[in-house]
Amino acid sequence: MTVGHRHNGRMARVLVGVSGGIAAYKACELVRLFVKAGHEPIPLVTPVAERFVAARTFAALARRPLNEDPYPHLERADLLVVAPCTANTLAKLARGLADNVLTEAALAHPGPILVAPAMSPRMWSHPAVHENARLLAEQGADLIGPDEGETAEGELGVGRMAEPEEIFARAQQLLARAHELDGVRVLVTAGGTREPLDAVRFLGNRSSGRMGVAVAVEAARRGADVTLLAANLAVPVPPGMETVATPTADDLAREALARAGSADLVVMAAAVADYRPAEVRTDKRPKDTSNWTVELEPTTDVLAALGELPANGRVLVGFAAETGEDGIARAREKLERKRANLLVFNDVSREDVGFDAPDNEVVLITRTEERRIGKAPKREVAAAILDEAHRLLREANGRPGE
Ligand code: CTP
Q1: Cβ proximity of 320 and 346 under 8 Å
Q2: Could you read off the pLDDT of 192-205 as tens digits, one per residue?
Q3: CA 268, CA 334: separation in Å to the nearest integer?
Q4: For residues 297, 299, 204 and 326, what is the CA-based torsion angle, rounded to 10 degrees?
Q5: Same CATH fold, 185-396 and 13-177?
Q6: Is residue 146 reached through a cis peptide bond, with omega within 30 degrees of 0 on the bond before it?
Q7: Is the bond into 84 cis (omega within 30 degrees of 0)?
Q8: Is 205 a catalytic residue?
Q9: CATH code that applies to domain 13-177
Q10: Which of 188, 232, 259, 268 to mutate to test the pocket of ligand 1 (most atoms within 8 A of CB)?
Q11: 3-state SS class at 315
Q12: Domain spans of the chain?
């Protein structure tokens, strides 16, 4: 395992996708910034974008031969930037259409994707566009802008593409992170287990799996080898990782314990049932007028069981879904009791964050620190969790200052 491998400002191959809008002219400046920083930009200009700026302009700025075949570069690039991204291209990216070199690149490219939407304010405020942006973000793409101001067509509102300098700065940030977890094996559990009562009924919980999936996606974006143990996800299974279905607490315990030995980082984001029906009927219980009494028996506490294993430099992250004032104190107690290295405290009494919500607000609790992460989309919370986990990994492997 190489923890802490950095990009170190080395030359990166950056695919610069340009789709058809007036803001295409600003992509020229972006290409120039990449060249100036010593990177290797490869322009991918859609046929409609060519109506605004000729492909030869981009080729000249990128110092590439005209009519170069971009396909050999698609799978070996460090970053794909789509700037400007029109409403049409945004929809294609979100749904996986591949009808030109840019959209094909988006499917073939395994690394980070940065998208800078640009469109009229009326288009940007359309629910279909918002849904596409949300879908794309959920799949792991980073969105930047659009900004408020006057669009090139003279309309006021939100829709103008972010400035090239800003896009470039974010790209540099993504490049710096892209290899941070190279060679690190990460095991993530996500979702909520369902414990069968009979052939059709189960006891479950409200976890959607969004938080765990966001952690898995972010880890993969940073170069980790990710295995996702998925318990009844309400969100799509993300690409780029091994996924194993673990619908019950028993399945999840078995798979997690079998795989933990070969993981450097384990993130237990799943809401695992604490109890399951002691007896499961194989048929569907017919309805009658009497009460149905169900006896519940405890399940394995997976996090605690993992904490019992020899650590060997492995970092263990748990979640604490708590309600009420003394939640943090209980979470800290849980950290100690389950021998985790990091506990993500979640106040589940709030409706606007946490369970089955797109945002989260958490406190990261380690043996020595407490760090509050303000309300943010789950992918930003995932990034903060991985920053902390990465620091703990370096510490556990004797490279604290790296
Ligand atoms: N967890 C687990 N196995 C279980 C139950 C929970 O691995 N059978 C993990 C969860 O994935 C989570 C952490 O333990 O990372 C905390 O879950 P929570 O339900 O808050 O903890 P409990 O131990 O059930 O807490 P309490 O004793 O307060 O009910």
Answers
A1: yes
A2: 999 999 999 999 99
A3: 13
A4: 100
A5: yes
A6: yes
A7: yes
A8: yes
A9: 3.40.50.1950
A10: 268
A11: strand
A12: 13-177, 185-396
pTM for the full model? 0.85
Nearest alpha-carbon partner for 318 in 310, 330, 326: 330
Residue nearest to atom 18 of ligand 1 (CA): 320
H helices, E strands: number in the chain:
13, 19
Closest C-alpha residue for ligand 1 atom 6 = 272
Rounded to a whole number of angstroms, the distance between the first and last alpha carbons of the chain is 14
- The pair of three-digit structure tokens given for residue 50, joined into one six-digit string: 């060519």
Tell me the one-letter amino acid at 237.
V
Active-site position among 88, 100, 132, 205: 205
Q: Residue 282: what residue type?
A: T
55: enclosing H helix or E strand: helix 55-62
Q: Which CATH class is domain 185-396?
A: alpha beta
Spacing, Cα 320 to ligand 1 middle (Å): 7
The string of DSSP letters for 340-372 reads: -SEEEEEETT-SSSSTT-SEEEEEEEESS-EEE
Q: How deeply is 219 buried, as exposed, middle or buried, from its count of CB atoms within 10 A (0-12, 13-18, 19+)?
A: buried
pLDDT in tens, 316-370: 999 998 887 788 999 999 999 999 999 999 887 777 777 777 788 899 999 999 9
Q: Judging by DSSP bridges, how do beta strands 185-191 and 195-196 pair with one another?
A: unpaired
